[in-house]
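Field reference: sequence -> structure
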Amino acid sequence: MVDNFFKVLRPGINTTFQDKGRDNLYHIGIPFSGAMDNRNYLLANKLVGNKLDTPVIEFAYQGPLLKFYGNKINIVITGDVIFKLIQKGKEIDGNCYESYQLGNEDEINILSTNKSVYGYLAISGNLDLKLQWGSCSINTKANIGSNEGKKLEEEQKIKISKINENINKKKINYLNSKIENIRIIRGTNFDYFSDEGKKIFLEKEFTVSKLSDRMGMRLEGPKIENIINTNIKSEGLLKGVIQVPADGNPIIMLSDHGTIGGYPKIAVVASVDYDRLVQISSGSKIKFKEIELSDAETLFKLYQMETQNLLSQI
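Structure field:
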């Protein structure tokens, strides 16, 4: 029997295994984690004929260089990504949202995400990964998940437990839309901030800091003044919550966020904008736009319907 695996020739900057994440573990301090950009995660799996909750390889900025050994397999990359295939010594420019067949000793070189952050590599089959609390998703801050909770490393082998029999070529025309105005709902501590602070938050631009990661997106800009208390009794946090610490610069909680926190919460990002929010790269400018809860619910339902429509086209 042939062993099927990838050898990591270059791990990339932040390459991890991710799936849909973990459910209902906030009470023991474990966040959902999972793929940052859920739509691109789902599209990747559908394009290689997998179940939609199959683990994939997520990478940020620069991805891995991988060499494949084994039987023929289909792969696909989703996101806004520049990559090349190296087959029999020949380089081929790859297209996102289009599946490609790899043979023994072929390579895939994921050079960079193009003015975005996260991309996804899915294979037509199952990676040989250990689950923790029902998920393989890696949280490197807490060393939770498969691969001992760590990023991929050079010379590592990524074993494949099963290859799908159906490796028909698939593709879809999809363009990742950019977003600058992030829609938000008022947070539980909105009135902790001065009228001028609220105005700044809703009207001024902020810059995404280089210190952002899967845990949180730090923003830099005009100071948001707190007139009540810059610290509160620690409370539960959710993905998308925007906290404002004493320095007045907002922090948006992302997929690996802590489950409690003691900074006042000025707002929460509408779920409809989360996939595109996480793709905003450091140095980019963003603004916030307030909407009502009912509008946020309607917009998210429409976004889910649009995602299902895309999946049905594959």
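Note: The two ends are 32 Å apart (CA to CA).
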